[in-house]
Design brief:
A hairpin with a 2-residue loop joins strand 6 and strand 7. This protein has four helices and seven strands; from the N terminus they run H-H-E-E-E-E-E-E-E-H-H. By secondary structure, the chain is an alpha+beta fold. A four-stranded antiparallel beta sheet has the order 1-2-7-6, with no helix packed on it. The N and C termini lie far apart (59 Å). The chain is 23% helix and 34% strand. It has a domain of 47 residues. The radius of gyration is 25 Å and the shape is flat. The relative contact order is 0.12.
Length: 182
């Protein structure tokens, strides 16, 4: 991170149109993770992935919305369907699971054993009504895909608003009202 990026009033100025600046706390967390990963590497200890120090894993998720559905994909490498639970309440999709793995090697004169455990819980808030009875989930090659069909009421709520060239601004509207009153 350069010195310029540390100055709060200069953040985001070099972003492309349509890009958002990352939240400062997310940036700080990423930097702290990087610092600790470098520290462990320097001590010649095994590097821990994000969240594994606390017994938690943080699966990456993607949320896509189409006209008909909301599709949530979660990367869960090494997990099987039996390790994952998906639940839906009125406004939240909950994905939780637990990863357990054990490796044991026996050679002449020594035994090597390695265990890792981790659990996760991701809550995805839904700001749109879905048809709970038609929600489906499938796991393929370590990727969980949950498809949530939108309710008919939710589909009707969306309305495209045309964009005019310079028309309809508040100031122009007030000027027209003022001229009409005169």
């Amino acid at each position: 991170m350069s010195m310029r990026e540390l100055i709060p009033w200069s953040r985001g100025r070099d972003l492309e149109p349509g890009q958002r600046a990352e939240h400062p706390l997310a940036t700080m967390q990423r930097e702290m993770d990087r610092v600790f990963d470098e520290l462990w590497r320097g001590l010649d200890l095994p590097s821990w992935g994000r969240g594994e120090r606390t017994g938690m894993i943080a699966p990456r998720i993607d949320v896509r919305e189409t006209d008909e559905t909301i599709v949530v994909s979660a990367e869960l490498p090494g997990l099987e369907e039996k390790d994952v639970e998906v639940t839906l309440n009125e406004s939240t999709l909950l994905i939780r699971g637990e990863k357990k793995s054990e490796r044991r090697e026996k050679e002449k004169g020594y035994t090597y054993s390695e265990r890792s455990f981790g659990s996760f819980e991701r809550r995805i808030p839904l700001d749109i009504e879905v048809e709970g009875e038609r929600v489906t989930a499938a796991m393929t090659n370590g990727v969980l895909t949950v498809t949530l069909p939108k309710s008919p009421a939710a589909k009707r709520k969306e309305r495209r608003i045309p964009i005019g060239a310079g028309a309809g601004t508040g100031e122009q509207h007030r000027d027209k009202e003022h001229q009409a009153a005169a």
